[in-house]
Amino acid sequence: MSKIKELEELLKTALGGDIEKSIEFHKKYNNVWNPFDDGFTEMLHACMYDTKCTGSAGLGWDNLDKGESKYSSRVQSRNCKDCGSKVMFFIDTCQTCGSKDLKLPKDSRWGISSESHLKYYESLKGYRLALLEPIEDNANCREFVLRSWFIETKNPYLTAYAKTQFNSTKSNHINFMPLGKDFYHSSPCLHLKASIGEWGVDIEYFNTENKTSEEIPKKFLTDMTINEIMSAKKMGKERGIVVRK
Ligand SMILES: [Zn+2]
At a CB cut-off of 8 Å and minimum separation 6, what does 123 contact? Predict the structure, then answer.
């Protein structure tokens, strides 16, 4: 079987054949529709890179070839602006209060450990970052795009970010935003793009050798050096400082 064909089969199997039926069940119970997850993504990457999963047991990576897998989905729940309830993506009315004033947060992240990044700096090959997105912010949308990028461990920007996060008084956890400023400045190279719909799966792009990184969008271009960008960073949420009175 060709690799493209195998990737299509793998994705189709995870989708379970009948997307509409699956979505209807999830709508019925207001449950997040997420046909892929972290474990599946490790297998997807094992297939893409001709390697195996390691089960992460005590290692700094998920694939035997020393690649670390991350998955994030933008087919997220909407937030009801009236009562604060979560409403799954394919429903346009709040299941708690009936409001139609819902907002899609688009804030899902990839979690990267700054500690592991620095600890395995010499041995970890890099990060394989998969993102599932609906093609439009609409409850009737039934078309999705799954993309996977590669960022090498020794990327100077990501490493500066890991050092800054690690040396801060905050968590060691990098909340890495897909398609955000830090993402584009870390030279992500697209390795996979798949279109997903009720018809099935189409692999539109597959090249694990691609070394041309995504163009940085204008809004993220800056004259600041990496060090200046890092100095200006607020490193995530405070860990919770107790002030004695
Ligand atoms: Zn509500």
Answer: 60, 66
Q: What is the pLDDT of residues 4-50, one digit of tens each?
A: 999 999 999 999 878 999 999 999 999 999 999 999 999 999 999 99
List, for residues 155-191, the tens digit of each pLDDT value.
Answer: 999 999 999 999 998 899 999 999 999 999 999 999 9
pLDDT tens, 93-137?
999 999 999 999 989 999 999 999 999 999 999 999 999 999 999
Alpha carbon of 141 to ligand 1 centroid (Å): 21
Long-range contacts of 135-141 (CB under 8 A, 24+ apart): 137/104, 139/89, 139/90, 139/91, 139/92, 140/90, 141/90
What is the value of pTM for the model shown?
0.93
CA of 101 to the centre of ligand 1 (A): 8
| Residues facing residue 148 across a β-bridge | 130, 192
Question: In angstroms, what is the span from residue 160 Cα to ligand 1's centroid?
Answer: 41
Helix, strand, coil % (nearest 5) of the chain?
25, 25, 50
Distance 103 CA to ligand 1 centre (A): 11
Token pair in block for residue 189: 């190279």
CA atoms within 13 A on the CB side of 155: 22
User: How many A from CA of 27 to the centre of ligand 1?
Assistant: 16
With vertex at residue 206, the alpha carbon angle to CA 22 and CA 43, rounded to the nearest 5 degrees, is: 55
> How remote is the C-alpha of 44 from its chain's centroid?
14
